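STRUCTURE:
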């Protein structure tokens, strides 16, 4: 049943999850997955892909609202915010490129929280070089046959995935690539867990596809055109990732202000020392600036204006500055910050991964340079 959500009310609902998410974050990390219960609860509250149209289970709200929801969830736990970020990214890809029946089915699963759908772009041997996948797809009657290996977040817990595979072996880099919606429970799919330094709850894994049959109507967009058509949705997710990092870091800064105001040294609160308060002031300044950049990028997206360069800025700068901010927070907690009893060290580990996944800083800067100078004059 379609529900109507008010934007402010939805952000408040997301904020209401914060303390619960904080208290349960270690349990999720130990389990190595985000529980289906919290995903369904988020879906019932309308917190997954609210920008999708009502007919697909969304709330037809703005991208800015989706960004604020993402930020609010990430204040509680960066990894749980992945459910929303990936939900919006994959939901947009499916909504724009799948036929109506396929879009209705999978977007309904995503927005309700009944299932997650992963994104399979990276490969163990090809991360930043996404335009040169080794995974292949060939037509066989009414099906496509998929072969290859992908590494992806939510691999071990998702029902399906959007993957990118080469459909024209003779085409050059960035060409002859198609996108498919693949059932992760299909015959020929094998999953392997990846043990990471942080973000264990996102259940990252290696997924092998061995002669996996995919119905022809699960091709997303035009054949051979995925790298230009389908990947347009990444401008949206890059701004969301920035706000995901900002939510986590802003909670760490708030916790650290509370700590240094209460912690006594040399007969006064730690916050009275410039060497303590000034790094936090600098962190707040940079976090606020990054937040405004992300929200402006989403506003441009809502208005249908170009924002590829701004999205790339969000993706490289917000993860970096939020990592630096939480690093300072850990140091200002002293020995207590190094303990696993507090959430500071987990937030630091989680944020470090955001500088790697979904596009490195080098690739983002290349996008910005080419946008500003043109391909002829950029690297």
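SEQUENCE:
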């Amino acid at each position: 049943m379609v529900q109507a959500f008010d934007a402010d009310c939805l952000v408040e609902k997301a904020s209401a999850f914060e303390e619960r998410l904080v208290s349960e974050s270690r349990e999720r990390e130990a389990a190595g997955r985000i529980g289906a219960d919290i995903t369904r609860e988020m879906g019932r509250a309308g917190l997954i892909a609210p920008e999708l149209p009502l007919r697909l289970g969304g709330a037809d709200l703005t991208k800015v609202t989706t960004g604020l929801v993402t930020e609010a969830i990430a204040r509680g736990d960066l990894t749980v915010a992945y459910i929303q970020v990936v939900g919006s990214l994959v939901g947009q890809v499916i909504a724009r490129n799948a036929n109506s029946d396929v879009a209705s089915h999978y977007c309904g699963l995503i927005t309700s929280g009944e299932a997650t759908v992963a994104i399979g772009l990276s490969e163990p041997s090809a991360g930043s070089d996404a335009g040169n996948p080794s995974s292949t797809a060939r037509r066989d009657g009414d099906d496509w046959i998929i072969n290859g290996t992908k590494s992806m977040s939510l691999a071990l817990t998702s029902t399906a995935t959007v993957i990118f595979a080469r459909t024209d072996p003779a085409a050059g880099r960035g060409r002859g690539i198609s996108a498919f919606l693949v059932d992760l429970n299909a015959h020929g799919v094998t999953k392997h867990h990846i043990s990471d330094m942080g973000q264990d709850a996102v259940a990252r894994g290696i997924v092998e596809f061995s002669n996996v049959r995919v119905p022809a109507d699960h091709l997303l967009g035009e054949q051979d055109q995925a790298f230009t058509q389908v990947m347009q949705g990444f401008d949206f997710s890059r701004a969301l990732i920035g706000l995901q990092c900002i939510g986590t870091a802003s909670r760490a800064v708030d916790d650290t202000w509370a700590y240094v105001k209460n912690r006594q040294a040399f007969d006064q609160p730690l916050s009275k020392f410039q060497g303590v308060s000034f790094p936090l002031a600098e962190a707040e300044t940079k976090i606020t600036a990054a937040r405004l950049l992300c929200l402006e990028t989403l506003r441009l997206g809502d208005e249908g204006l170009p924002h590829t360069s701004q999205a790339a800025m969000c993706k490289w700068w917000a993860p970096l500055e939020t990592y630096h901010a939480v690093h300072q927070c850990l140091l200002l907690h002293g020995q207590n910050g190094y303990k696993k009893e507090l959430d500071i060290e987990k937030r630091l580990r989680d944020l470090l991964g955001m500088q790697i996944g979904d596009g490195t800083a080098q690739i983002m800067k290349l996008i910005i340079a080419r946008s500003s100078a043109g391909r002829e004059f950029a690297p």
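REMARK: The chain has three domains: 7-115, 120-223, 227-373.
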